[in-house]
Design a protein that fits this description.
Strand content: under 5%
Number of domains: 1
Distance between the termini: 50 Å
Shape: flat
Length: 172
C-alpha cells in the first residue's frame, strides 16, 4: 500500500505498483483514470493532490503503459484480443477510462489479424462518436447563444443564417 497523509490527519491509501503487476493488463490504466477523474478532486490540499498525481504518473510510466504495450505489441494474438475485448466493453460504458489506449489504436489497425483490427476499429469508433457528441453539444450551445443574440437584435439575419447552416451541416 502507498499511503499519503492528509492535512487533517487522515490518510489516503492507494495500491502499490508491485501488486498491480498481477492485475489484467487494462486495469492499471482504468485505476489511474478513475482516481484522476473521480477521487483526486475530492482530496483536500494541493500538496496531497500533487503527491497522488505524481504517484499516478509513476504508475502509468512504470506499470500501465509498459504492460499494455507488451500485450498489444506482443506475439500472442489471443492475449491481445482478450485485452481488446475488455477495453471495448469498457469503452462502451465509460470512454474516458480508456483514453490512454487511444494512441496505440492506429498501430493495431494495421495488424494482420482481422479480429484485432475489428476490435481496434470498434474502440476507435467509440472514441469518434464521443468526440462528435462533444463537438455537437458545443455547437448546440453556441447556436442557442446566437439565437438569443438574434432574437434580441444583436446579431444580423445573415450572420444567424450562416451560423445555423454550419450547425445543421455538422449535425448531419
Amino acid at each position: 500500500m502507498r499511503v499519503f497523509n492528509k492535512k487533517s490527519g487522515g490518510v489516503v491509501q492507494l495500491i502499490d505498483k508491485d501488486k498491480m503487476q498481477e492485475w489484467p493488463v487494462e486495469l492499471p490504466l482504468i485505476f489511474v483514470e478513475y482516481i484522476r477523474e473521480k477521487q483526486l478532486k475530492t482530496y483536500e490540499g494541493s500538496q496531497l493532490k500533487k503527491e497522488v498525481s505524481q504517484y499516478l504518473d509513476e504508475i502509468l510510466k512504470e506499470v500501465a503503459i509498459p504492460r499494455l504495450i507488451s500485450v498489444l505489441e506482443g506475439k500472442s494474438t489471443e492475449e491481445t484480443i482478450s485485452a481488446l475485448l475488455r477495453i471495448e466493453e469498457l469503452s462502451k460504458k465509460n470512454i474516458e477510462m480508456t483514453r490512454p489506449i487511444r494512441p496505440y489504436l492506429n498501430k493495431l489497425l494495421k495488424n494482420t489479424d482481422k479480429k484485432v483490427v475489428k476490435l481496434a476499429q470498434n474502440i476507435s469508433n467509440n472514441f469518434d462518436q464521443v468526440d462528435r457528441r462533444k463537438n455537437l453539444a458545443q455547437k448546440r450551445k453556441e447556436m442557442r447563444e446566437k439565437e438569443k443574440q438574434f432574437l434580441s437584435g444583436k446579431l444580423s439575419a445573415a450572420d444567424y443564417a450562416k451560423a445555423r447552416r454550419e450547425y445543421l451541416t455538422l449535425k448531419e
